[in-house]
Amino acid sequence: MTTCSQPADPGHSPQEAQPVIRIRNLRKTYRLGDESDVHALAGVDLDVMPGEHLAIMGSSGSGKSTLLNILGCLDHPSSGSYHLGGDDISLLDDDSLSQVRGKRLGFIFQSYHLIQQLTVLENIQMPLLYQNTEGPESLARCKQLAEIVGLGARLDHRPKQLSGGQQQRVAIARSLVNDPLLILADEPTGNLDSATEADVLELIDNLHDQGRTIVMVTHDDHVADRADRVIHMRDGLIHKTTYPSPP
Amino acid sequence: MLLRYRRTFTLGVKNLYLHKVRSLLTMLGIVFGVGSVIAMLAVGEGASQKASESIARLGSRNVILQSAEPPAEVASQQQETSNNIPAWRKTYGLTGQDIQRIQHTIPNVELILPETEKTEEVTSPSSQRRAILHATTADAPEMRNLAAIEGRFFTNIENDRAAAVCVLSPALRKKLFPFGGAIGQTVRIQADFYTIIGIFSPGFAGDDDDQAANGAANAREDIVYLPIHTAKTRIMRFAYSRTEYDTLVIRTTSTRHVPAIGAAIEALMKATHNEKDYRITVPLELLAQARETQKLFNIILGSIAGISLLVGGIGIMNIMLATVTERTREIGVRRALGARRNDIIIQFLVETVVISLTGGIIGVVLGVSLPLIISALTSVPTVVTPVSVALSMVISLLIGVVFGLYPARRAAALNPIDALRH
User: Fold this and answer.
1) CATH of the domain at A228
2) What is the interface pTM, i.e. ipTM, of the complex?
3) Which residues, given as ranges, of chain B have pLDDT below 50?
């Protein structure tokens, strides 16, 4: 797929002017019965600039998960356009979407979603497995990432042998391994106690400081406060936008 | 690309290893399926080769004629026939005339070996035995695969001159002359003495085992070979026999003439004999028939074993479907991290193929060793053919692919969002 041939270099990119995410009039409609349609997204417009840290808040059913799924190329919008790094995503087929996910996106999930039978190192390598970019350099890079998230000594451990905070740090390392254009985090601290939460948020802040573009869904105000911009969703629309002042 | 498949492969093996018991139980179906296919075919092939061998021993270039009491006479044995000859005295079967006719009318006949047998008391200086007197010509060792143990067989000249010589089977020699040599000694049959000129074994390599296993065959061990002319001129029972020859073994110049000559002899016999007082056997035809029967037998055996392979395959599919459900979330994660549908399909196929191939290999080991055990414990001959091994390996591979495909496709068809939420 040619649209993915230019992996962005976040942070030092000269394309500062072009938004990473550009969404126009995005709608997602679920048809429940014959007549009743549920508008999970009812026409959302959103631009996310490179290096931005955006938080999405909202009660359940507000459409924030649907928005994140579409941003993560896991779901198709019913109508509207979605450009990721300048390329129109809404037209791609399933295989191409897989490729976009693998090459341009990094995922951090609430429940970590590590693969239990694999070691820390193998989990971090996982996205590369589907990109045919495995090699000695990438192995070194995976080790380096494990080092950065503080798990350099636990490469051969299985997820079960790690605490929740450690598992989430493995997931963060995994989300970085393909040098993604955009990191999507779905309540990354939702399952963690406050001490480890602080660690993980610190790590995410560091990523932001390195110029990574981050979109994070959260319930927590103090988590959202670390973002550059917070959008509040309600009934499938962006209800209000706030700009927390840096702590 | 290759590296990726290697990773997928090692992952598949690892996944199986993590669920050792389950994988092993799943494999068991294939193990026994493949094992029984190979073992069954081995038993079938063994039986087939044994049958072929015993037929081939009759000689694939030969056509065999045997005297047979005409059926009508069997029914009315006590009644007198129209010629006022009692039925029990009436001659029947193969005669010297038949030999003449065949030799003079049918081309490509190389040799005709006449044989006729009676049972008679044979006396040595130290012992007496009831033995089979087997009257034949000098061609017998070659035509009937008699093995020389000691001395020589009688010659055509001795036959023509009705010389009083004989050849003993090793078993009879042991009984009549337990101490010391037999060559040059004499035995008495009825009123005459016969000089022993040789010891010849009727045994074929394979037959010895059978005789050891089967006591009834011992009855055929005590044999005296006599020149046929000697027997007919010197021994009453041969002279006044109702049949001139028990058997004529007709050797053709080549196997490719056998069917035609067989038909020609049959026609000739039909035209010259009023009654059907003979039986014709063409070993080559028997062989073809035996092969045909064996083929059918093998197909039946093979399909029974094939059913167990099928059951093994269904077992694999069952387990893999359960595995897909169990690993839905893993599939979701992989999809989110960039795995295409095909990557997921391949991952699951690798697991089923590894299961079925490993099961296949263990099954081959089982299938090859089982016939050996069968052969060692019983006298059933078994032959493992490379074809059956290759065939069952290919089938087990196919089973992995075929029965793995449906679960794999189901895994790949999962929507990543739903899979992640699972």
Assistant:
1) 3.40.50.300
2) 0.89
3) 74, 77-78, 80, 205-218
